[in-house]
Amino acid sequence: MANTADIKNGLCIKWKDGLWQVIEFLHVKPGKGPAFVRTKLKSLDTGKVVDNTFNSGVKIEPVRIETREHQYIYNDDMGYHFMNTETYEQIAVQKHAINAPQFLKDGVNCSIVFHAEEEKVLSCDLPNHIECEITYTEPGLKGDTATNSTKPAIVDNGAEIRVPLFINTGDWVKVDTKARTYSERIKK
């Protein structure tokens, strides 16, 4: 058993008959009254995010988790299928457990978090950045590099992102999967 002093980002806990992961936390010591911990928790069962405040010193029940490297293969009506890169076993992961499913591409290595005792998939994290080819966007005009304007673009896996005006169809870009935004243009 742990208490609120042990709360940190990424910690998984049992709370309100479910498994929750701490996304953000803040220890607060007001001038008057007792200290408390303000948290943002994500349900690992439904993907719902809620705010909660724990009083300082409250007991919490952490859950032991393991992270394993898996490679994305394909998706169908059963879910998104991944293969363990060491044992070659395949597993299906539900869409709500993946942090940015629209950016999955064949062969992308992802970190999958498992509940250690139950061997249950809790979440799937893509790499921080992936490289994508722009398959469609409106043509850019000469001189459009000086502004901060963006335009919609479709990448090779079907996702839509906003890119600067100088990006054209066929260009390769680096996409930030956490923020789901354009990061930079790359040469291929």
Describe the structure.
The chain has about 190 residues and is mainly β. It has 3 domains: about 1-60, SH3 type barrels, CATH 2.30.30; about 65-125, OB fold (Dihydrolipoamide Acetyltransferase, E2P), CATH 2.40.50.140; about 130-185, Nucleic acid-binding proteins (OB fold (Dihydrolipoamide Acetyltransferase, E2P), Beta Barrel), CATH 2.40.50.140. The protein is about 0% helix and about 55% strand. It is built from no helices and 16 strands. The strands form 3 sheets. Strands 1-6-2-3-4-5 form a 6-stranded antiparallel sheet, with no helix packed on it. The protein has a 5-stranded antiparallel sheet with strand order 9-8-7-10-11, with no helix packed on it. It has a 5-stranded antiparallel sheet with strand order 14-13-12-15-16, with no helix packed on it. Strand 4 and strand 5 (about 50-55) form a beta hairpin. The termini are far apart. The mean pLDDT is about 90.
